[in-house]
Amino acid sequence: MTSVLVVDDQVLIRAGLAALIRAAPGLDVAGEAADGEEAVALAAELRPDVVLMDIRMPGLNGVAATARIVAGAPPPPRVLVLTTFDLDEYIYAALRAGAGGFLLKDTPPERLLAAIHTVAAGDTLLTPSVTRRLVEAHVTSPRPDRPAPDLAPLTPRETEILRLVGTGRSNTAIARTLVVSEATVKTHLARLMAKLALSSRAQAVVAAYETGLIVPGRRDD
Predict the structure, then answer these.
(1) Which string of b and e fits 154-185 if b means at least 16 CB within 10 Å?
(2) At what angle do helices 11-22 and 109-120 cross, to 10 degrees?
(3) Residue ranges of the HTH luxR-type domain (predicted)?
(4) If you classify domain 147-210 with CATH, what class do you get?
(5) I need a surface site. Which of 40, 111, 149, 175 has the fewest CB within 10 A?
(6) pLDDT tens across 81-97, in order?
(7) How far is 138 from 142, CA to CA, in rounded Å?
(8) What is the pLDDT of residues 185-212, one digit of tens each?
(9) What percent of the chain has pLDDT over 70?
């Protein structure tokens, strides 16, 4: 049973999400939070598998709450962010903070439930078209306060896998591309993420852009 902490400052939305999750096979609601501070506290107390996180909330917003939850006692829950099209700048920040992925609030119920299972399994949910637009828009902007990761510690194979992760490929697809086993890809990915101090695959995607492995606007096949 996958436990989910539902976080949203709007009572009706929060209640609706909780009811949907409770009715779904294999899912259960660990708790509900109305703001970021409560979400951080309940995540530490209840230890849910997934936190379904709203972005725009009074007080501590979803981005800051995500960063604090991900930095908590290991293993931290996976965070799935809910957003709308007009909050692009928050999505980039959420990925940097360690969110496992994001969905739009108008996502159909069946897709939301599938997304929760995906994130709970340790995979990252990145809608390719939206994610690519968001990451390209923000990575190409100057960020002197956030230097790009140093790729020097990576082996050539690890660097190539980071590039392929940045294109949105799954571990299975990367294994096919490099003609290696999926287990080998997972091992290299775990090592490169440790070397770069990355806590999620989403952060690896951002790192691939920030370091120039993926050039915005260019097709990477």
Answers:
(1) beeebbbbbbbbbbbbebeebbeeeeeeeeeb
(2) 70
(3) 147-212
(4) mainly alpha
(5) 111
(6) 887 755 566 777 777 78
(7) 8
(8) 999 999 999 999 887 777 788 888 888 8
(9) 84
